[in-house]
Amino acid sequence: MAIEATLAPASDTSRPPEGRREVVYRHSVVVRVTHWVNVLVISLLLMSGLNIFNAHPELYWGKFGANFDFAWLAMGSVHTAAGAAHGVLRLGGLAFDTTGVLGVSAGPHGTRLYQGFPAWSTLPSWRDLATARRWHFFLAWIFVANGLVYLLMGLANGHLRRDLAPTISELSPANMGRSILDHIKLKHPTGEAAKRYNVLQKLAYVVVALILLPLMVLTGLAMSPGFDAIAPWLLDLFGGRQSARSLHFICANLLVLFAIIHVTEVFLAGVLNEVGSMITGRYALPRDRQA
User: Cα-flanking dihedrals φ and ψ of residue 44, to 5°?
Assistant: First the structure.
Protein backbone atom coordinates (compact mmCIF):
# COMPACT_ATOMS: atom_id res chain seq x y z
CA MET A 1 0.00 0.00 0.00
CA ALA A 2 3.04 2.25 -0.04
CA ILE A 3 2.27 4.67 -2.82
CA GLU A 4 3.25 8.08 -1.57
CA ALA A 5 6.09 9.65 0.33
CA THR A 6 6.91 11.00 3.75
CA LEU A 7 7.51 14.61 2.89
CA ALA A 8 10.23 16.84 4.29
CA PRO A 9 9.35 18.62 7.54
CA ALA A 10 7.98 22.11 7.03
CA SER A 11 10.54 23.47 9.49
CA ASP A 12 13.40 22.75 7.07
CA THR A 13 14.29 26.29 5.95
CA SER A 14 17.81 25.67 4.69
CA ARG A 15 18.62 27.16 1.30
CA PRO A 16 21.16 25.94 -1.28
CA PRO A 17 23.83 28.15 -2.81
CA GLU A 18 22.72 30.48 -5.60
CA GLY A 19 22.06 28.58 -8.83
CA ARG A 20 21.52 25.20 -7.15
CA ARG A 21 18.20 23.60 -6.33
CA GLU A 22 17.25 22.81 -2.76
CA VAL A 23 17.34 19.10 -1.98
CA VAL A 24 15.01 17.68 0.66
CA TYR A 25 14.70 14.23 2.22
CA ARG A 26 11.37 13.16 0.79
CA HIS A 27 10.94 9.39 1.21
CA SER A 28 11.80 7.33 4.26
CA VAL A 29 13.47 3.93 3.95
CA VAL A 30 10.24 2.13 4.89
CA VAL A 31 8.22 4.02 2.28
CA ARG A 32 10.81 3.32 -0.44
CA VAL A 33 11.10 -0.39 0.31
CA THR A 34 7.36 -0.98 0.64
CA HIS A 35 6.71 1.06 -2.50
CA TRP A 36 8.98 -1.06 -4.71
CA VAL A 37 7.72 -4.30 -3.14
CA ASN A 38 4.22 -3.16 -4.04
CA VAL A 39 5.21 -2.32 -7.62
CA LEU A 40 6.44 -5.88 -8.12
CA VAL A 41 3.79 -7.71 -6.11
CA ILE A 42 0.75 -5.83 -7.45
CA SER A 43 1.99 -6.25 -11.03
CA LEU A 44 2.29 -10.03 -10.57
CA LEU A 45 -1.03 -10.17 -8.69
CA LEU A 46 -2.72 -8.46 -11.62
CA MET A 47 -1.17 -10.86 -14.13
CA SER A 48 -2.05 -13.99 -12.16
CA GLY A 49 -5.53 -12.57 -11.54
CA LEU A 50 -6.08 -12.18 -15.29
CA ASN A 51 -5.17 -15.83 -15.78
CA ILE A 52 -7.73 -16.79 -13.13
CA PHE A 53 -10.31 -14.58 -14.82
CA ASN A 54 -9.68 -16.34 -18.14
CA ALA A 55 -10.94 -19.59 -16.63
CA HIS A 56 -14.42 -18.01 -16.61
CA PRO A 57 -14.35 -14.61 -18.37
CA GLU A 58 -17.76 -13.45 -17.18
CA LEU A 59 -18.84 -11.34 -14.19
CA TYR A 60 -22.16 -11.35 -12.34
CA TRP A 61 -23.93 -9.71 -9.40
CA GLY A 62 -25.32 -11.88 -6.63
CA LYS A 63 -24.47 -15.23 -5.12
CA PHE A 64 -24.39 -17.78 -7.91
CA GLY A 65 -23.42 -16.61 -11.41
CA ALA A 66 -25.00 -19.61 -13.07
CA ASN A 67 -28.10 -20.81 -14.86
CA PHE A 68 -30.00 -17.70 -15.99
CA ASP A 69 -28.01 -15.06 -14.13
CA PHE A 70 -27.15 -12.08 -16.32
CA ALA A 71 -23.45 -11.44 -16.92
CA TRP A 72 -22.84 -7.70 -16.81
CA LEU A 73 -19.38 -8.21 -18.37
CA ALA A 74 -18.22 -11.03 -20.64
CA MET A 75 -15.28 -11.66 -22.97
CA GLY A 76 -15.43 -14.22 -25.72
CA SER A 77 -15.36 -14.79 -29.46
CA VAL A 78 -17.78 -15.16 -32.35
CA HIS A 79 -17.32 -16.61 -35.82
CA THR A 80 -18.67 -15.06 -38.99
CA ALA A 81 -20.33 -17.07 -41.74
CA ALA A 82 -16.98 -17.07 -43.54
CA GLY A 83 -15.32 -18.64 -40.50
CA ALA A 84 -13.40 -15.55 -39.32
CA ALA A 85 -13.05 -15.27 -35.54
CA HIS A 86 -13.69 -11.98 -33.74
CA GLY A 87 -13.06 -11.11 -30.13
CA VAL A 88 -16.06 -9.58 -28.37
CA LEU A 89 -16.35 -7.65 -25.11
CA ARG A 90 -19.91 -7.44 -23.83
CA LEU A 91 -20.65 -4.74 -21.27
CA GLY A 92 -24.28 -4.79 -20.23
CA GLY A 93 -26.27 -4.63 -23.44
CA LEU A 94 -23.34 -3.27 -25.48
CA ALA A 95 -20.89 -5.29 -27.58
CA PHE A 96 -17.44 -4.19 -28.76
CA ASP A 97 -15.11 -5.82 -31.29
CA THR A 98 -11.84 -6.43 -29.40
CA THR A 99 -10.10 -8.77 -31.86
CA GLY A 100 -6.37 -8.99 -31.22
CA VAL A 101 -6.66 -7.78 -27.63
CA LEU A 102 -9.57 -9.42 -25.78
CA GLY A 103 -11.42 -12.63 -26.67
CA VAL A 104 -9.20 -13.49 -29.64
CA SER A 105 -5.47 -12.70 -29.57
CA ALA A 106 -2.15 -13.86 -30.98
CA GLY A 107 -0.72 -17.07 -29.56
CA PRO A 108 2.63 -18.83 -29.95
CA HIS A 109 3.90 -19.80 -33.41
CA GLY A 110 1.27 -17.75 -35.21
CA THR A 111 -1.69 -19.48 -33.58
CA ARG A 112 -4.76 -17.79 -32.20
CA LEU A 113 -5.83 -17.87 -28.58
CA TYR A 114 -9.51 -17.87 -27.70
CA GLN A 115 -9.54 -16.47 -24.17
CA GLY A 116 -10.39 -13.28 -22.30
CA PHE A 117 -7.01 -11.61 -21.82
CA PRO A 118 -3.99 -12.23 -24.10
CA ALA A 119 -1.14 -14.52 -23.05
CA TRP A 120 1.42 -11.70 -22.63
CA SER A 121 -0.68 -10.16 -19.85
CA THR A 122 -1.11 -13.27 -17.69
CA LEU A 123 0.94 -15.27 -15.20
CA PRO A 124 1.71 -17.94 -16.27
CA SER A 125 1.44 -17.01 -19.95
CA TRP A 126 -0.44 -20.23 -20.74
CA ARG A 127 -3.87 -21.10 -19.36
CA ASP A 128 -3.29 -22.84 -16.05
CA LEU A 129 -5.84 -22.05 -13.36
CA ALA A 130 -4.14 -24.08 -10.61
CA THR A 131 -0.72 -22.45 -11.09
CA ALA A 132 -2.26 -18.99 -11.39
CA ARG A 133 -4.19 -19.47 -8.15
CA ARG A 134 -1.04 -20.59 -6.32
CA TRP A 135 0.84 -17.51 -7.54
CA HIS A 136 -2.10 -15.25 -6.65
CA PHE A 137 -2.55 -16.53 -3.10
CA PHE A 138 1.20 -16.53 -2.36
CA LEU A 139 1.61 -12.96 -3.61
CA ALA A 140 -1.54 -11.81 -1.84
CA TRP A 141 -0.08 -12.57 1.59
CA ILE A 142 3.12 -10.71 0.71
CA PHE A 143 0.93 -7.78 -0.33
CA VAL A 144 -1.00 -7.88 2.95
CA ALA A 145 2.18 -8.05 5.06
CA ASN A 146 3.77 -5.23 3.07
CA GLY A 147 0.64 -3.09 3.43
CA LEU A 148 0.46 -3.64 7.18
CA VAL A 149 4.09 -2.51 7.56
CA TYR A 150 3.32 0.65 5.62
CA LEU A 151 0.10 1.45 7.51
CA LEU A 152 1.52 0.75 10.96
CA MET A 153 4.63 2.83 10.28
CA GLY A 154 2.49 5.59 8.78
CA LEU A 155 0.39 5.71 11.93
CA ALA A 156 3.40 5.51 14.24
CA ASN A 157 5.40 8.31 12.62
CA GLY A 158 2.40 10.51 11.82
CA HIS A 159 2.85 10.25 8.06
CA LEU A 160 -0.80 9.43 7.36
CA ARG A 161 -2.08 12.30 9.51
CA ARG A 162 0.60 14.83 8.57
CA ASP A 163 1.01 14.24 4.84
CA LEU A 164 -2.19 12.59 3.60
CA ALA A 165 -5.12 13.88 5.62
CA PRO A 166 -6.51 16.97 3.79
CA THR A 167 -7.32 20.00 5.93
CA ILE A 168 -10.67 21.78 5.89
CA SER A 169 -9.15 24.72 4.00
CA GLU A 170 -7.71 22.37 1.37
CA LEU A 171 -11.17 20.91 0.81
CA SER A 172 -12.71 24.32 0.14
CA PRO A 173 -14.31 24.72 -3.31
CA ALA A 174 -11.85 27.50 -4.22
CA ASN A 175 -8.79 25.40 -3.41
CA MET A 176 -10.23 22.29 -5.06
CA GLY A 177 -11.03 24.26 -8.20
CA ARG A 178 -7.54 25.78 -8.30
CA SER A 179 -5.93 22.35 -7.95
CA ILE A 180 -8.12 20.88 -10.71
CA LEU A 181 -7.23 23.79 -13.00
CA ASP A 182 -3.51 23.33 -12.29
CA HIS A 183 -3.75 19.65 -13.24
CA ILE A 184 -5.63 20.45 -16.44
CA LYS A 185 -2.89 22.95 -17.36
CA LEU A 186 -0.20 20.36 -16.41
CA LYS A 187 1.10 22.93 -13.94
CA HIS A 188 3.30 21.24 -11.34
CA PRO A 189 4.27 22.79 -7.97
CA THR A 190 7.63 24.46 -7.54
CA GLY A 191 9.69 25.78 -4.63
CA GLU A 192 8.03 25.52 -1.22
CA ALA A 193 4.78 24.21 -2.71
CA ALA A 194 6.61 21.11 -3.96
CA LYS A 195 7.29 20.03 -0.36
CA ARG A 196 3.67 19.04 0.21
CA TYR A 197 0.90 17.29 -1.67
CA ASN A 198 -1.96 19.22 -3.21
CA VAL A 199 -5.49 18.26 -2.23
CA LEU A 200 -6.12 16.08 -5.31
CA GLN A 201 -3.00 14.06 -4.61
CA LYS A 202 -4.01 13.59 -0.99
CA LEU A 203 -7.51 12.46 -1.90
CA ALA A 204 -6.19 10.06 -4.56
CA TYR A 205 -3.65 8.50 -2.18
CA VAL A 206 -6.22 8.19 0.62
CA VAL A 207 -8.74 6.50 -1.68
CA VAL A 208 -6.13 4.07 -3.06
CA ALA A 209 -4.21 3.26 0.12
CA LEU A 210 -7.09 3.25 2.60
CA ILE A 211 -10.09 2.20 0.49
CA LEU A 212 -9.25 0.46 -2.81
CA LEU A 213 -6.37 -1.72 -1.61
CA PRO A 214 -8.13 -2.91 1.60
CA LEU A 215 -11.24 -3.55 -0.49
CA MET A 216 -9.17 -5.72 -2.82
CA VAL A 217 -8.08 -7.81 0.17
CA LEU A 218 -11.59 -8.16 1.63
CA THR A 219 -13.26 -9.08 -1.67
CA GLY A 220 -10.46 -11.56 -2.33
CA LEU A 221 -11.09 -13.23 1.02
CA ALA A 222 -14.85 -13.23 0.36
CA MET A 223 -14.25 -15.27 -2.81
CA SER A 224 -12.39 -17.98 -0.88
CA PRO A 225 -14.69 -20.76 0.42
CA GLY A 226 -11.98 -21.70 2.91
CA PHE A 227 -12.39 -18.34 4.62
CA ASP A 228 -16.14 -18.71 5.19
CA ALA A 229 -15.73 -20.27 8.63
CA ILE A 230 -13.47 -17.43 9.80
CA ALA A 231 -15.54 -14.49 8.54
CA PRO A 232 -18.91 -15.64 7.19
CA TRP A 233 -20.15 -12.04 7.35
CA LEU A 234 -17.96 -11.12 4.36
CA LEU A 235 -20.33 -12.80 1.91
CA ASP A 236 -23.26 -10.87 3.34
CA LEU A 237 -21.24 -7.65 3.27
CA PHE A 238 -20.62 -7.91 -0.48
CA GLY A 239 -23.90 -9.59 -1.42
CA GLY A 240 -22.47 -12.95 -2.45
CA ARG A 241 -19.36 -14.47 -3.95
CA GLN A 242 -20.13 -13.31 -7.49
CA SER A 243 -20.66 -9.73 -6.35
CA ALA A 244 -17.34 -9.89 -4.49
CA ARG A 245 -15.67 -11.14 -7.68
CA SER A 246 -17.15 -8.26 -9.67
CA LEU A 247 -16.04 -5.71 -7.08
CA HIS A 248 -12.56 -7.28 -7.01
CA PHE A 249 -12.32 -6.88 -10.79
CA ILE A 250 -13.57 -3.27 -10.71
CA CYS A 251 -11.11 -2.31 -7.96
CA ALA A 252 -8.25 -3.90 -9.91
CA ASN A 253 -9.12 -1.83 -12.97
CA LEU A 254 -9.33 1.35 -10.89
CA LEU A 255 -5.83 0.58 -9.57
CA VAL A 256 -4.58 0.16 -13.13
CA LEU A 257 -6.14 3.52 -14.02
CA PHE A 258 -4.48 5.13 -10.99
CA ALA A 259 -1.12 3.59 -11.97
CA ILE A 260 -1.39 4.97 -15.52
CA ILE A 261 -2.16 8.48 -14.24
CA HIS A 262 0.53 8.19 -11.57
CA VAL A 263 3.25 7.13 -14.02
CA THR A 264 2.18 9.81 -16.51
CA GLU A 265 2.49 12.47 -13.81
CA VAL A 266 5.93 11.15 -12.86
CA PHE A 267 7.15 11.63 -16.44
CA LEU A 268 5.56 15.07 -16.74
CA ALA A 269 7.04 16.24 -13.43
CA GLY A 270 10.55 14.94 -14.25
CA VAL A 271 11.11 11.21 -14.28
CA LEU A 272 14.76 11.24 -13.15
CA ASN A 273 14.06 13.41 -10.11
CA GLU A 274 10.84 11.63 -9.17
CA VAL A 275 12.12 8.06 -9.57
CA GLY A 276 15.51 8.99 -8.14
CA SER A 277 13.86 10.27 -4.97
CA MET A 278 12.04 6.96 -4.58
CA ILE A 279 15.42 5.21 -4.76
CA THR A 280 17.64 7.53 -2.72
CA GLY A 281 15.01 9.36 -0.69
CA ARG A 282 16.28 12.77 -1.77
CA TYR A 283 14.30 15.13 -4.00
CA ALA A 284 15.50 18.28 -5.74
CA LEU A 285 12.78 20.92 -5.48
CA PRO A 286 11.84 22.43 -8.85
CA ARG A 287 12.79 26.11 -8.97
CA ASP A 288 10.06 28.62 -8.26
CA ARG A 289 8.66 30.00 -11.50
CA GLN A 290 9.20 33.53 -10.26
CA ALA A 291 12.89 32.94 -9.56
Answer: -70, -35
